[in-house]
């Protein structure tokens, strides 16, 4: 399925359309601090027992309790997102053994969040033909990471102005000897090269084999502007995805 890519710039611009939780701004305000997100988090909805709420997974261990979290964002889906927040006092009825901090949300904006796809070989169809081999470069910055069962990638590529939707995928199951080798693919569907720009996407790694609590090397391969490149990350299956003993 073709999915429109949201660039990092577009994500921040869209965030500005979300009301900032303060009455006014004055000339002395630090506008850079308003635009800069505090973190990338996983927005996790919790439903059941007549109570719906959400919380933020900051990293593999830390959970944040957002104030005014009774309305589920993003139609109740779990997504990765930019969030701008300020720390505040923890409400008395919140379990401090579960949540490390309480935060007041100034704005948040979702990141394109997709499941990785398992490769299924087709006769006379190469992986390049099936998923595309248009080049990308990946930034080695704080937005590129493996956290909470997601591989989040901050990437750079060329874009056209034709309105054609590009497609991004993370393909698994390509290396029988290493199930933790994955490939990031980009299909521009013939879109032109009108301008340079970056983007961000997050892929769920839930379909990878359970590491059973161990940390392994996740090997990422992708087609860059100068040929195939490889990057490695530490990866451990998320606790709630681990197989029950």
Write down the overall mean pLDDT.
87
Query: Judging by the overall fold, what is the CATH architecture of the largest domain?
Result: Sandwich
- End-to-end separation in angstroms reads 36 Å
The biggest sheet amounts to:
5 strands, mixed, barrel
Backbone shape: globular
Helix and strand run: HHEEEEEEEHEEEEEEEE
CATH homolog superfamily of the largest domain: NigD-like, C-terminal beta sandwich domain
Q: Estimate percent helicity.
A: under 10%
- Strand coverage percent: 35-45%
- Alpha plus pi helix count: 3
Structural class: mainly beta
Q: Over all CA atoms, what is the radius of gyration?
A: 19 Å
Structural write-up:
The chain has 245 residues and is mainly beta. It contains three helices and 15 strands. The protein is globular, with a radius of gyration of 19 Å. The two termini are 36 Å apart.
List the helices and strands and how they pair.
Elements: H1 8-16, H2 31-35, E1 39-46, E2 53-57, E3 63-66, E4 79-88, E5 101-110, E6 112-115, E7 117-118, H3 127-131, E8 137-138, E9 145-147, E10 150-159, E11 167-172, E12 181-187, E13 195-204, E14 216-224, E15 227-235
Parallel strand pairs: 3-5, 6-13, 7-11, 12-14
Antiparallel strand pairs: 1-2, 1-4, 2-3, 4-5, 8-10, 9-10, 10-13, 11-12, 14-15
Question: Brief overview, please?
Answer:
The protein has 245 residues and is mainly beta.
């Amino acid at each position: 399925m073709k999915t429109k890519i949201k660039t990092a710039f577009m994500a921040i611009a869209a965030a500005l359309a979300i009301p900032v939780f303060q009455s006014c701004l004055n000339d002395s305000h630090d506008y850079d601090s308003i635009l800069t997100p505090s973190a990338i988090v996983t927005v996790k909805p919790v439903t059941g027992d007549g109570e719906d709420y959400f919380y933020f997974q900051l990293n593999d261990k830390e959970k944040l309790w957002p104030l005014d979290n009774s309305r589920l964002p993003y139609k109740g889906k779990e997504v990765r997102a930019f969030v701008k927040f300020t720390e505040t006092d923890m409400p008395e009825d919140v379990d401090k053994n579960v949540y490390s901090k309480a935060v007041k949300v100034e704005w948040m904006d979702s990141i394109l969040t997709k499941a990785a796809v398992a490769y299924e070989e087709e006769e006379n169809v190469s992986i390049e033909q099936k998923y595309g081999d248009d080049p990308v470069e990946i930034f080695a910055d704080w937005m590129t990471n493996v956290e909470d069962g997601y591989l989040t990638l901050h990437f750079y590529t060329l874009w056209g102005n034709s309105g054609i939707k590009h497609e991004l995928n993370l393909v698994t199951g390509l290396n029988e000897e290493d199930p933790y080798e994955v490939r990031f693919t980009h299909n521009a569907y013939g879109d032109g090269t009108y301008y340079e720009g970056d983007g961000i996407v997050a892929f769920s790694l839930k379909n990878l084999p359970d590491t059973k609590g161990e940390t392994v090397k996740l090997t990422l391969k992708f087609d860059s502007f100068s040929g195939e490149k490889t990057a490695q990350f530490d990866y451990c299956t998320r606790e709630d995805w681990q197989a029950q003993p």
